[in-house]
């Protein structure tokens, strides 16, 4: 396996979560993981992206983006920096400015913004910038056929967990409590449900409608797993 594949998550994984979980609810029993135990990358690229995300995203989206930094698959290959950048930027297309700037679905426009930001502005390696952009574009490409990159699959699992309470067995309840204490949700479920409905209203062709024009925002709004932390 090349260094590029190992560093930037260019490895094919099944798009179907049940395949990577081998038909089980989890790979291993979830254990508490305090936020304080996670050392975020402190590279110039990570710092620049963190500052950009904090400046461009509203508080609810920024906190959500940091909170999905989770792990169940230690054997998967990618750098912490690459996954952190994907987490920070995956919803960049949902800001009021960006959602109104294009007729494209927010994930696709977000992927373009991400590629340009990381490669052109922050001078990240093109292989890393493209991996993160691909993950941003496909983070709502939920399905049971075909493959997706390592970073893309992990981002899908994390967003479905945080937005709808899916695959709740992957994360210990104590971890959820600590993460939401450090990064309050600030009624994230209502915030994101409203964003989905806004995009569907502005762009009735949006890719988000593939998840259910009403079912998806309703599922986000009624996220029972995260309701105590809203």
> How much helix is in the residues?
40-55%
Query: What is the makeup of the main sheet?
Result: 2 strands, antiparallel
Strand order of the largest sheet: 1-2
Count of β-strands? 2
**Multimer state:** single chain
Supply the number of helical segments. Answer: 12
Short key terms for the protein model shown above:
single chain, 230 residues, mainly alpha, 12 helices, 2 strands
What does this protein look like?
The protein has helices spanning 3-8, 17-20, 44-56, 59-67, 80-89, 96-99, 106-121, 126-138, 150-164, 173-182, 188-202, 215-221; strands at 12-14, 147-149. It is mainly alpha-helical and 230 residues long. It has a two-stranded antiparallel ribbon. Helix 5 (80-89) crosses helix 8. The longest helix has 16 residues, at 106-121. The radius of gyration is 16 Å and the shape is globular. The termini are far apart. The model has no long low-confidence stretch (mean pLDDT 91).
Helix and strand layout, with pairings?
Layout lengths: L2 H6 L3 E3 L2 H4 L23 H13 L2 H9 L12 H10 L6 H4 L6 H16 L4 H13 L8 E3 H15 L8 H10 L5 H15 L12 H7 L9
Antiparallel strand pairs: 1-2
Helix pairs in contact: 3-5, 4-5, 5-8, 7-8, 8-9, 11-12
Short structural description:
Helix content is 53%, strand content 3%. It has 230 residues and is an all-alpha fold. The protein is globular and about 45 Å long.
């Amino acid at each position: 396996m090349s260094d590029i594949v190992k560093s930037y998550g260019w490895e094919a994984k099944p798009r179907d979560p049940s395949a990577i979980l081998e038909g089980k609810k989890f790979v291993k029993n979830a254990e508490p993981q305090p936020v304080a135990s996670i050392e975020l990358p402190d590279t110039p690229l990570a710092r620049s992206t963190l500052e950009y995300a904090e400046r461009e995203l509203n508080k609810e989206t920024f906190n959500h983006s940091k909170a999905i930094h989770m792990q169940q698959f230690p054997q998967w290959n990618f750098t912490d920096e690459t996954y952190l950048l994907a987490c920070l930027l995956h919803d960049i297309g949902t800001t009021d400015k960006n959602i109104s700037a294009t007729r494209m679905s927010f994930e696709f426009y977000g992927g373009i913004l991400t590629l340009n930001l990381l490669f052109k502005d922050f001078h990240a390696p093109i292989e890393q910038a493209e991996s993160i952009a691909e993950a941003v574009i496909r983070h709502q490409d939920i399905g049971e056929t075909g493959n997706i990159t390592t970073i893309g699959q992990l981002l899908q699992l994390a967003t479905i967990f945080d937005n709808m309470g899916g695959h709740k067995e992957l994360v210990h309840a104590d971890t959820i409590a600590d993460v939401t204490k450090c990064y309050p949700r600030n009624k994230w479920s209502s915030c994101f449900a409203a964003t989905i409905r806004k995009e569907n209203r502005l762009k009735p062709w949006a890719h988000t409608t593939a998840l259910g024009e009403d079912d998806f925002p309703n599922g986000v709004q009624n996220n029972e797993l995260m309701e105590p932390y809203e």
